[in-house]
Design goal:
The complex is a heterodimer of chains A (295) and B (277). With 295 residues, chain A is mainly alpha-helical. In chain A, helix 4 runs antiparallel to helix 9 and helix 7 crosses helix 9. Chain B contains 11 helices and 10 strands. In chain B, a hairpin with a 6-residue loop joins strand 9 and strand 10. Chain B is globular. The relative contact order of chain B is 0.17. Classes of the chains: A mainly alpha (295), B alpha/beta (277).
């Protein structure tokens, strides 16, 4: 033993074999395993929700649910066609408000006055707004629209949703515009573009995939919101009338899941599945649009 | 537009090499600031018509700053301030009444990094013409510009491809085609070959020599052989660190062969012989 040790010292032989039971190797193995475990755990909620939705919602899913009106208390059958239309309509209004507004503001923040007081304040407000509890957007729209016009309406719902979409659209669009290479902006200015021409002809086309991604993500978020619609669009058992209370998928799920009737509970599951599929579809659209134009 | 350019070409043709050329752009930068930092001082660079004027000097000597001041590109830098005059056909382009956008339409620019737009080769070249509301035979103009930039034969079958799909040297020639399509009077080039390999560099240099028949060219270069190969006039800039800052200034300017073979200033001599401290 002693002999071997001295020989090792004399020749300075480095030990290159793996030593899996050394403390530092053990620590590395344990920490790596924990990260893998954490990554797997992160997937569990999503997959369990999806499996549950497919199982419970899939049973009730049929063509009827897309075009029939909600059933009354002890009725069988029925669907939530009006809620799908209502959700699409209100998200559409919200997008019509927030997309032009958000993109124009983003152009100012990214290009015209990035360091101005207005821009710094607006950016700060938008970041706070992304964390705004969605129920507050509902309360705001209730006070600003429902109380003033003395009726729940799809308009009020759309306005409430737009409050949630604006900051998302604004911040992602600003980021997308900032990502356009400086060399390309210089080229536009160098050839004699006015700031507006440089923006419309060169910068926005390059930034477009990023902007679309932001818009679609904002739409997907708004489509799933319940709280802002509770005080604004309320709910309805009838087809869409924009100036009256309006049904939406999210509120339908909220209402029906608490009911004591089997039929309504099943419909709530089916509506959840439809809503998740809609959001999923939007995400795929945004990914393909966002990925396609990359250079 | 067209008339003007033909007149210009006729004038250029009648001009011989012996007569002193007309100064088309008289740049006199008294002081150029970025914020409080004095970047360039006391530099008078007259740019002669249908000649190539080279700007040489060590890094940070302000040669690019001066070049970019000539078509007001530096206006993009928020803290930029220019004191002095740039006379273009007798008009000071820093006059309050002058629109920097129209200055840039008459004084084109080619940048260090090739920066074609993310659109087709054809649209890249047509871009400036469309900005100027050109209503005529666009195909003809695009072909002329691409031929002028010695790129036509390489791209004539793929004009619809994205400009960014070309190689670096082709991209730079595409940028030159884009810049000359609108027939600017002066073409500024900021180290146009520094991102190119020797073959592409040679092509761009040959191109510059062709271009001076029709345009006036000013080029910034780090490569002194390049200045000797292409420039008719050379301006040598240096950095003055005596005041504590790093302020660039014009040391001397003259015909290229004279400046390289018989420099008046010791500083120029040292720089050209690599004895720069």
């Amino acid at each position: 033993m002693k002999h071997a040790q001295t020989a090792e010292n004399e020749f300075h032989l480095p030990r290159l074999e793996r030593q899996p039971f050394e403390p530092r190797a053990l620590k590395s193995i344990v920490l790596s395993s924990i990260t893998v475990a954490a990554a797997i755990t992160a997937c569990i909620p999503l997959f369990s929700v999806l499996i549950m939705l497919l199982y419970r919602g899939g049973k009730r899913l049929s063509l009827e649910v897309f075009y029939q009106l909600p059933p009354t208390a002890f009725e069988t059958g029925g669907g939530f066609g009006n809620a799908i239309v209502g959700t699409l309509f209100m998200v559409g209004i919200a997008a019509l408000i927030s997309v032009p507004f958000g993109i124009l503001a983003a152009i100012f923040l990214a290009e015209l006055g990035p360091d101005s007081k207005v821009a710094i304040t607006a950016r700060f407000c938008a970041k706070i707004m992304t964390g705004l509890p969605s129920i507050l957007a509902g309360v705001f729209a209730y006070a600003a629209v429902v109380v003033v016009f003395k009726t729940y309406s799809a308009w009020a719902g759309g306005i409430a949703l737009s409050l949630l979409m604006i900051p998302v659209v604004l911040l992602t669009a600003e980021e997308a515009i900032k990502m356009v290479p400086r060399a390309m902006k210089e080229a536009a200015v160098g050839i004699g573009c006015t700031p507006a021409q440089a923006m419309v002809k060169v910068i926005l086309p390059v930034a477009l995939p990023g902007i679309i991604t932001g818009v679609v993500l904002a739409v997907a978020r708004a489509a799933g919101e319940t709280a802002p619609l509770l005080f604004t669009a309320l709910f309805s058992d009838y087809w869409l009338k924009a100036q009256e209370p309006t049904a939406s998928l999210a509120v339908l799920i909220y209402n029906y899941s608490g009911m004591p009737f089997e039929n309504q509970i099943e419909l709530a599951w089916a509506a959840s599945l439809v809503l998740v599929l809609m959001v999923f579809l939007l995400n795929i659209i945004s990914r393909t649009l966002g990925g396609r134009k990359k250079i | 537009m067209l008339m003007k350019s033909t007149q210009r070409e006729e004038k250029a043709a009648t001009q011989t090499n012996d007569t002193p050329a007309e100064v088309v752009l008289d740049c006199h930068a008294e002081q150029i600031f970025y914020g409080d930092f004095l970047a360039v001082r006391d530099s008078k660079v007259p740019i002669q018509k249908n000649k190539i004027t080279g700007f040489i000097g060590p890094s940070g000597c302000g040669k690019s700053t001066v070049l970019k001041s000539i078509n007001r590109m530096n206006d993009l830098v928020r803290t930029f301030r220019f004191e002095g005059k740039v006379q273009f056909h007798g008009i000071d382009i820093y006059d309050k009444k002058v629109d920097p956008v129209s200055v840039r339409r008459n004084i084109g620019m080619v940048f260090q990094q090739p920066n074609p737009f993310s659109m087709s080769i054809y649209e890249n070249v047509a871009f400036g013409l469309r900005l100027n509301r050109f209503r005529g035979n666009m195909d003809e103009k695009v072909e002329k510009a691409l031929r002028g930039a010695a790129l036509w034969d390489e791209v004539k079958n793929k004009l619809k491809n994205n400009g960014l799909s070309l190689s670096g040297g082709q991209q730079q020639r595409l940028c030159i085609a884009r810049a000359i399509a609108t027939e600017p009077q002066v073409l500024l080039m900021d180290e146009p070959c520094s991102a190119l390999d020797p073959i592409a560099t040679r092509q761009v240099e040959e191109l510059m020599i062709q271009l001076k028949q029709r345009f006036t060219v000013a080029i910034v270069t780090h490569n002194m052989q390049q200045a000797q190969r292409v420039a008719d006039q050379t301006a040598f800039f240096a950095v003055d660190i005596s005041q504590g800052g790093r302020t660039g200034y014009l040391v001397e300017m003259g015909p290229t062969s004279e400046l390289f073979n018989n420099p008046k200033e010791q500083l120029t001599k040292d720089y050209l012989h690599g004895e720069f401290s």
